[in-house]
Design a protein that fits this description.
single chain; 393 residues; alpha+beta; conserved putative lor/sdh protein from methanococcus maripaludis s2 fold; 6-stranded antiparallel barrel; 4-stranded antiparallel beta sheet; 23 strands; 28% helix; 32% strand
Length: 393
Amino acid sequence: MKPAFRRWAVIAALIIVPMFGAGFLSTLKPEPPKKDEVKLAPLVDVLELDLAPGVFTVRSQGTVRPRTETVLSSEVSGAIVEISPNFVAGGVFGKGEVLMRIDPTNYTVAVDQAKALVRQRQIEFDGAEKLLSQGYRAEAEHASAAAALASAKAELVRANRNFERTYIRLPYAGMVRSKNADLGQFVNPGTTLGVTFATDIAEVRLPLTDQDLAFVTLPDARAQAEPEVDDGQAVTLTAIQRGQPARWDARIVRSEGVVDERSRVTYAVARIDDPYRLHSEGAPLPVGTFVAAEIEGQSPVDTIRVPRSALRGSDELVFLTDENTIELRRVEILRTDADFAYVSSGAAVGERISVTTLEAPINGMTVRSTDRLDEEEDSAAGQVAMEADEATQ
């Protein structure tokens, strides 16, 4: 036998012989005992149904608007000769404060002329009346003098009124939104001078759906006719200011009384007193702020609250029987919000539902529930112990 062939035969023997030896030894090892495969039922979290606590909260949103806003316009012509330092965008002014003054020269002259004419017409009238009483003047001449006097007095009233119109002021305390005219500018009647608004009260228009209106009582026409009656529903307004959440108390004072044709919502109006906190404490609420609103609604009656995530579809819940089997049941949903659904019928207090999402639940399917997990584990442990005793015997 050649040396090369002998060497390869030895190498092959060193590989093949151990493999056959390992295979033979494995046949001598006893087989492990077989255990029955145990399939555990799905484990679900359980909620026991109870009545909804507290009151319904209706959520809406809107933008803060002034209740009273004015576009200032000139009623007379002339150059602006005086402007209040408060007449700037964001400036705060008082009731009756002079914001602007238009050159009054022509209107002062007109007042003086009207006064002189009134004095002249008064003298003429007095003379005509005296002559009439003596029988020297006709009735027509007396009437003409009286008409001339009345016309002169009316002209004096007009002159005085035009003179007063050279003062630009408002019958409320407020804030300047925008300024459209400045010192030295010549204006004509109708020229826009600026935009102002009152700071005593602000309002927020809150859109409400027909479903929301079932839980919100809006003031009726009689209540709106008596604005001093403060019995509207409470509203909490919230917004982020300077990176921090802020809140304000408001109250619904009226409804706009019509349904929006495009969005099919009804607008309720909430009132905020002293929004800029000029006469009270607290964070100001500037006009134009977008706020979220929570309206205190009516208390629920015989209504069950469930997590919105527990719903399958729009109106189906997974109920658990006493034997921990599934029962799929449709319920009537009264309303929903971001977190909860409110059930008016189809469920009872004390029943159990699954709040765990199951992939394909079917009626009669067995599950394990977290509220009975300890009982199930004790039962399983007892079964294992019993089987061990039987095996020992």
